[in-house]
Write a structure and sequence with these properties.
heterodimer, A: alpha/beta, 9-stranded mixed beta sheet, 29% helix, globular, B: alpha/beta, Rossmann fold, 7-stranded parallel beta sheet, 5-stranded parallel beta sheet, 8 helices, 18 strands, 30% strand
Chain lengths: 301, 343
């Protein structure tokens, strides 16, 4: 080892609707998603990204900062990240971020990462299960002006200002060396994300962003008002940082809906096409007749 | 905020490795031709690599009207930054109207990088592209001849049509295997233009140390017959029946995600939204319930035979022949009938 330096990581995560459990009308009239109609989960591959960052910290030292952009309830994935071992979390939340496509999202995230400043590695999951676009990672890397390693499966080594990583591609593996800082998008096969720690769950039980104070006061009326709650959480380091557009050096025109070139024109629910269907009896005669028919239609043979 | 293009040209990124062009790139040249005809414009292929011989001419034969060709040792193997540099400069300089890229590992690495640099809209993993109009009611403006970028969303539960009215090019990555390529026409004429890349030292910060490729023996996309097993195949030995029937029919073995997850067969056999999109002459679905993610990858098969014990399985709604029964009994009957026919 030529150096004994440490490496700071930023992990970009997303709270996503659980697309495996879709019911009801999930689109709003403007074509955007009605996220409240679906259970929200930690995007699966973002957990692999977090795990990779935590392993870097364990091997080389440094800080792991987890960041998400979303509505107030996205703080849930930040608490989860703390339970799994993140050092620090930041919520980016502002009405001006709302309705962002991947370009406007990457612009906002870039503003936040630049504000954070001191980083060597940026991790994201390969893609999010709500859109499956896999775009925000590379788009953010471009805006940060740093190289990207997509489909990262493992970090072989970090040495000085160089990373060696393995990429998982459809037909094999690629070993690459790259200068830091760089951005990695992490695939599901990279690792087994550690579970949340029970001790940390208790430790961060009250952790909250200011956007959650009102609902917390309903649960814990003994705090009287938001100021009392804020003082209590701040003193115990349980106040989760909230960044809005005012905290970032960004051009508001490039955020949210106005900064998004793409828009949903229309949405159709998948309807099964009814086909001319023929029922074949499950016996030898029926099957033989079916195969005969397929042969006659030049489909088999 | 607009960056309108001057031309209505359709660009296609041509993905090649060691001189072999990716199927999806040829499919996109054919689709690009169709779109350009509607728009009254041209299709232009972007080809990068090193010592590619007569590949540019071949692209003309496959439907390109023009090929922009960069031939440089640094472009021999795909790397994000050199490829993004050349592409970004071309897009900024010439402003195409539409820019299509295959939704492959390479295309999905390159396209977002370029879209971010030129501030264009990008839609991922489209399964259909059409030309159509859009009336912005609030601004009282009609945008004519936009690209309708059609893709499954929300795990395949929705089909969304995405548009990009003003921030052009209208960029999309397109799934492999959903569009048809053209037979090459050696009499086709077109323009071939060489491009000199302007690299920066910063473009070379990533080095490929080694690459380990395993040859895929599975070719689902070109298979005329596919026999696929799903979660209803209860065991590894029962999955052998699927293999045997495929063998007797001279077809390939396919699988639903459930069968892959159960470990009966490797992932390269998976058909569906996260696997391969197939369009065989005959698709036999055995023990596959027919979740929307699976159907999305096979519902354009010419004939679908479904075998399932559950008469209400959704696969039956798209099947041409439904067999309600146990695949452990039905498949041996099929094998027997085929062997007798062969005698």
């Amino acid at each position: 080892m030529s150096s004994a330096r440490t490496y700071n990581s930023v992990v970009l995560v997303k709270q996503v609707p659980d697309t495996h459990n879709i019911t009801g009308n999930v689109m709003k009239n403007d074509g955007t998603l009605n996220r409240s109609a679906l259970p929200a989960i930690f995007n699966p591959e973002d957990l692999n990204a977090l795990e990779m960052a935590l392993q870097v910290r364990e091997r080389y030292g440094g800080q792991v900062t987890v960041m998400t952009m979303g509505p107030p309830q996205a703080a849930e994935v930040l608490r989860d990240a703390l339970h799994r071992g993140a050092d620090r979390v930041i919520l980016l939340s502002d009405r001006k971020f709302a309705g962002a496509d991947t370009l406007a999202t990457s612009y906002a995230l870039t503003g936040a990462i630049k504000k954070l400043g001191d980083y060597d590695l940026v991790f994201c999951g390969r893609q999010a299960i709500d859109g499956d676009t896999a775009q925000v990672g590379p788009q953010t890397a471009e805006k940060l002006g740093i190289p990207q390693i997509t489909y990262a499966e493992s970090i072989v080594s970090l040495d000085g200002d160089e990373i060696v990583a393995e990429r998982a591609l459809p037909l094999g593996k690629e070993l690459v060396q790259c200068s830091l800082p760089c951005l990695l998008t992490v695939v599901a096969s990279a690792n087994q994300p550690r579970p949340p720690s029970a001790r940390k769950r208790i430790e961060y039980k009250l952790a909250a962003t200011p956007l959650e104070y009102r609902s917390l006061l309903k649960k814990w009326p003994e705090f009287e008002n938001e100021d009392v709650l804020d003082a209590y959480l701040t003193k115990r380091d349980l106040k989760l940082p909230l960044w809005t557009t005012a905290d970032l050096d960004v051009d508001e025109e490039k955020l949210g809906l106005s900064g998004s070139p793409t828009q949903v024109y229309k949405v159709n629910f998948v309807v099964l096409e009814s086909t001319q269907s023929k029922e074949i009896p499950a016996n030898q005669e029926g099957i033989a007749a079916l195969l005969q028919e397929l042969v006659q239609e030049y489909i088999v043979g | 905020m607009t960056n309108q293009s001057n031309s209505r040209d359709v660009w296609v990124f041509i993905e090649q490795e060691e001189g072999l062009v990716a199927d999806v790139s040829l499919e996109l040249l054919a689709k690009g031709q169709e779109l350009a005809r509607t728009l009254g414009s041209q299709v232009c292929g972007l080809l990068y690599g090193y010592q590619l011989g007569d590949l540019p001419e071949k692209l003309i034969h496959h439907g390109a009207d023009r090929v922009l060709w960069a031939d440089h040792p640094e472009l021999a193997m795909y790397r994000t930054l050199p490829y993004a540099r050349v592409t970004t400069e071309l897009v900024q300089g010439r402003r195409p109207y539409i820019f299509l890229v295959g939704a492959t590992a390479i295309g999905r690495d390159l396209a977002p990088r370029v879209a971010s640099a030129v501030r264009a809209g990008l839609t991922a993993d489209c399964t259909d592209l059409q030309i159509g109009d859009y009336e912005a009611k609030r601004e009282k403006q009609l945008y004519s001849d936009l690209l309708y970028q059609i893709r499954p969303a929300f795990g395949g539960n929705l089909i969304a049509t995405i548009i990009n009215p003003t921030m052009h090019p209208q960029m999309a990555t397109v799934r492999e295997g959903v569009m048809r390529r053209q037979e090459p026409d050696v009499t086709r004429q077109g323009a071939i233009e060489k491009i000199e890349p302007n690299f920066d030292d910063k473009d070379m910060v990533l080095k490929i140390l080694s690459r380990e490729t395993r040859e895929s023996k599975v070719n689902l996309r070109d298979a005329a017959i596919i026999v696929a097993g799903g979660g209803g195949v209860a065991s590894e030995s029962a999955f052998e029946l699927i293999r045997e029937l495929a063998h007797v029919l001279g077809g390939e073995v396919g699988a639903s995600r459930a069968a892959v997850d159960a470990g009966f067969i490797s992932r390269e056999h998976q058909v569906g939204q996260t696997g391969t999109t197939v369009r065989p002459r005959l698709y036999i679905a055995a023990g596959i319930s027919g979740a929307v993610q699976h159907r999305a990858g096979m519902d354009e098969s010419a004939k679908i035979v479904a075998i399932n014990t559950d008469p209400a399985a959704p696969i039956f709604q798209i099947a041409h022949y439904k067999i309600v029964g146990d695949l452990n009994e039905v498949i041996p009957m099929m094998i027997r009938a085929l062997r007798e026919k062969a005698k």
